[in-house]
Structure formats: structure tokens, C-alpha cells
Sequence to fold (660 residues):
Amino acid sequence: MTVRLPAPLRTPIGQAALAFAVAIALPFIGHNGGFTNFLADAGAFVLLALGLNIVVGFAGLLDLGYAAFFAIGSYAFAMLASPQFGIHLPFWVLLFVASGIAAVFGILLGAPTLRLRGDYLAIVTLGFGEIVPQTFLNLAQWTGGPNGIGSLDQPTIGSYKFGFDALPYYFMVLGLIALAVWLANNMRASRLGRAWMAIREDELAAAHMGINTTATKLAAFAMGASFSGLAGCALASKLQLVSPDQFGFNVSVFILAMLVLGGMGNIPGVIVGSLILSALERFILPQGTNFLHGLGFTSVDLSNSRFLIYGVILVMMMLFRPEGLIPSRQRKAELHAADDDATVAAHEQTLYTEAVR
Amino acid sequence: MDVFLQQLINGLSLGGIYALIALGYTMVYGIIELINFAHGDVYTLGTFFSLAILTLLGVTGVVTGPALILVVAVTIIGAMILCGLTGVIIERLAYRRLRNAPKLAPLITAIGMSFILENLMLYWRGPSPVSFPAVIPNPDVVLGSVTIQAKQIMVILLAIVLMLVLQVFVYNTKLGKAMRATAQDKDAAQLMGININTTIALTFLIGSALAGAAGFVSGVYYGSTWFLNGFAAGLKAFTAAVLGGIGNLAGAMLGGFLIGLTEAMTTQFISDQWSNVVVFTVLVLVLIFRPSGLLGESLPNKV
Fold:
């Protein structure tokens, strides 16, 4: 027996609207500040995952330093909206300024390196991801060094100040996610998006089809980085603080694991993967630890194992389900090309045998 | 000038460590075109294995006389065997299945392996730096105003000896020939009767064993290590491999020494904080202006 959804929910737009409505209702179900706080943070990571998805999922470029762009966006916001330099630009302007700055750095890093083979790109972005937080740490006279920059401006709408409650931040992040999903979805179907996927599948063939591969890859880098600028502003204004230790390699891998778990290249998959890992970090590991303590294993703290778990997720998913939990059809076909060849061959063999008979 | 000469010595000894790690990157890349991100962590593991062996031997400080040679030999060989086996296990469990998968898959798996190794080391030895006994006695050689420590001589000598052995192995033995054939064309090599699974496993064994030796050396050299030590060192060693020309053994050695010198000079003349930034800039510059490296030949894209 199959459950048939009502007609409006059978379309992707209907499903997206339903998901959005549920997301709006979520903080009112719990009436719990901690839960709303979690939702706002998790939402910022959904934004990051959507951005990285453009680079890794759509264009197939392994960016291991994505947190660097997140750092650049956050610091750009922090420097232009805090007592650090006495500059206080309006939040809503900075949202776009910061994502623009992050995008420019995406291009600056990408321009010299994107002509290289994919695996060199991985190591260069890895290095970049190391260098950026370190540079922010070293340039203490501008960035506050290890303490970072604090008392950042809070967003306002008219006379309404966002304050310290997580709820308005959550709704803002939700709005940004809606924007990001709309952008990413439209881009995927556009000429640019199809060029990204062509490059992902075979760069040489794509170049021969007349795609300017360098410009196309740069566009992916810039778009991905600009999403992280949005997330940077949202999270920095909520936390009221940026500091270099928020942007380490662990963060880049955390976001990559979200993509790998959910399904690279597939927007709903990426969102689900991101929410699962955020929930794992915030609820499942602490609860699991409590459970184990209850059973008598008092020395176990699962929260220390979270990076081990990300590593295991990356390896296991790549070995056993490279298309992710919720794959896009195209990506699945690509990753299982070898199986498909075998299937096709078997099918042709059957046809041949039947024809001969 | 004296400062410069002193840093030259320091740089060469640092470079010896990087060169040993870089060989593993370059060998694995040469044969299966994979940046083995877990390699830096195998190197850290080498330091921890050496530490465990020294503890078993009951060594906690300086050893003198003939016992020194025995202790050093046993520890290095032990660390090399254990690291070599770790490398083979990683290849068997994670990379072998993905040999024909799209490029992204083994790279992501390698990142995952690196995380797994780092966190296993975190469980094993905790989050803070662990001190390593100063095994080598310290009769410094003083030449004018430049001091060369005994451990620096050991690092440089050991690196050179291991590299020469490797060079002879790869270019003058049948197994080495099989490795070079597999690197050139796996299918053709297989048709010539070479067992490519064994050959690739052997490559991981040797590369990881060299990282194990580097691990011991770095323990002696720095006097401590911690579970994330291999991350930055791995990045620098990879830079060394690219600088020398990836896939090229002599290039990896040259690149290792050059990166070591760069780091020592940066530390002396700019600032310790910026050494990572400078090394990374070198990587980007090499990739832009001479992606085939100093000694590498440029290869056309394979279809």
C-alpha cells in the first residue's frame, strides 16, 4: 500500500513550502529557549552546507578550507559592526557586503589554483583553511588576536532590536536559507549550473564542449563563498563574538561530512544531512553519554568522539553509499556508473540471446 | 652570517624529516594518484609507536655506548614495521575498493581516515603534548660559532641513508621495477603478470615505513609530540613533494630540504608565527608557476 500525498504536496514546491511551514512552527512547539538556540545555530550550518554544496556537490571541486570563507565573512562583519574600529554599518547592508567580501576571496584563492587538477585544489584549499584563521590570530592589532572581536552590533528592524533571544535570529536564518535554496535551485537548472555538472562529470569533455572551465569553476567558488558570508554574519551577530578558533579545519570537515551524509549535489539531502549532524553534536552524543553513564560506563564521554564519528561517516559513506542518504538521481547514476555498465551489458546480453533465439 | 649558517643546519635537519614524509606522499601519488591525507597522521603514529617501544625497552633518557646503536636500531625498525602495517591496512580497508571510483571519493575517504587516526591517537595518548626521551647524547660539534647537535647529524644521515636505500630498491630491484610499471600503466602492468594489488600494498608499506622512521626522528628532535602533530607536518611535506615534482623520488628529497630551509629561515628572519603562511605561499606559487615541480616532467591530462 502506498500513501498518496494530497496533490499540492506532490510537487517539489509544495514539499518545500510544507518544510518551511514546519520550520516556522518548530520553535513554538517546544517553548524551550535551548531548542530555539539550537535551531538558529543548526540553521547557520544549513546555510554553510548549501554553500559548500555548490562547490563540492554541483561543481565537484573538493574544497577542504571552506571554513576560511566563513571566517572571512564573519570577520568582515565583525570589523565593520563593532567598537573595534568604531564603525557601525547597518546589519542588512553588511550581510551583502560580507558575503561579497567572502566571494572576492573565493575568486582570489580560486583564480591561481583552479586551472590545476582537482586533487591539488583540495590541498591548496586545505592550506588556505589553515592559513586564514592563523592570519586572523597573528594580526592581533586589527583582529583582537586569540580573543577575537566582541560586542558586535545586533541586527535591528526599524526600532526593533534582535537582542539576546535566539528566536529572531532563527527566523532571520530561516529567511536566508529560503533565499539560498531558491538561488541554489535556480542556479542548478541554469546554463551555469549545467556547466558545473558537466565539469564535475568530465572536465576535459566539458572544455571541448566550449565551456570556459576556469570561469565556471571560479563562479562556483565565489557563489559558495558568498553563502558562507551570509552564515558568518548571522552566526557572528547571534554569538556577539568572532574568534579564530571557530574556523578550524574541523569545521570544514564537519560541513563536508554533512554533504557526504545527506547526498552531495542534492539540496534536500544536504539540508537533512546538516540537521542530522547538528542534532548529533547537540543532543544525540550528550544523551548517549548520559545513557551509557546510567548503564555504569561512567568514564565514557561520547562528545569527545565526535570527530572520530565524522571520520567514520566520511569513510563508510564513500565505501558503501557514496551518493548519500538522499541522493539526487543524476549523482547516483554517476557514482554507480560502473554498476550501470554491468547492468547495461547484462541487459544487452539478454537482448542478444533473445534475438539469436 | 653565523646566524644564517646556524639556521642552515637547523633547516637541513628539519628538511630531513620533511623529506622522509614527502617520499610517502610522492610514492603513493605516483602509483594511484591519491593525496593520502592520512599520511601525516601515520607519521605522528610513528612517534607514538617509537615512544611505546622505548618504554618497553625501559629507556627514559640518554643512552650511551654500544647500547645506543641497538636502542636506536630496534626503535626505528619497530616503528617502521608498525607504521608500514598501518599503511597497508588503511589501503586495504579504505582505498582499494575505491580505486576505480570518481576522484572525489578516495580523497574524501583519505580525509576521513586522517580524522579517524587523529582521534584514535587522542584516545591513546590524550590531548596534551607527550614528552619524548632525549635518547641521543649531546656532544655538540662546534665549528666556529655554529653548533651542530648530534641529533641533527643523526636526522640528516638517517634521511640520506634511507633515501639511498629507497632509490636502489626502486631502480635496481624487480619489485621496484614492478612499482614503476604499475605507476605508468596499471592495466598494462597487470597484463605483464604484475600483481598490482600486492605492488600498491608494497608502496603503502614502504611509504608508511619511511613516515615511521620520520616519526622516531621527530620525537628525538623535538622532544615531544601530540596527536595533531602530523597535520601541519603533513601539509609541509606535501608541499615538499609538489615542489620537487610529485611522483619523483629525488624531487621529494630536494623539496623536503628546501621546505625545511624555508621554515628555518622564516622562523629566524621573519617570525615563528608566519612559518606556516610562508610555506603555504610557496605551495601556491609552485602550483601556479611550475606545477610539475623542480624535477618533475609535465604530464598531459589523461582522458
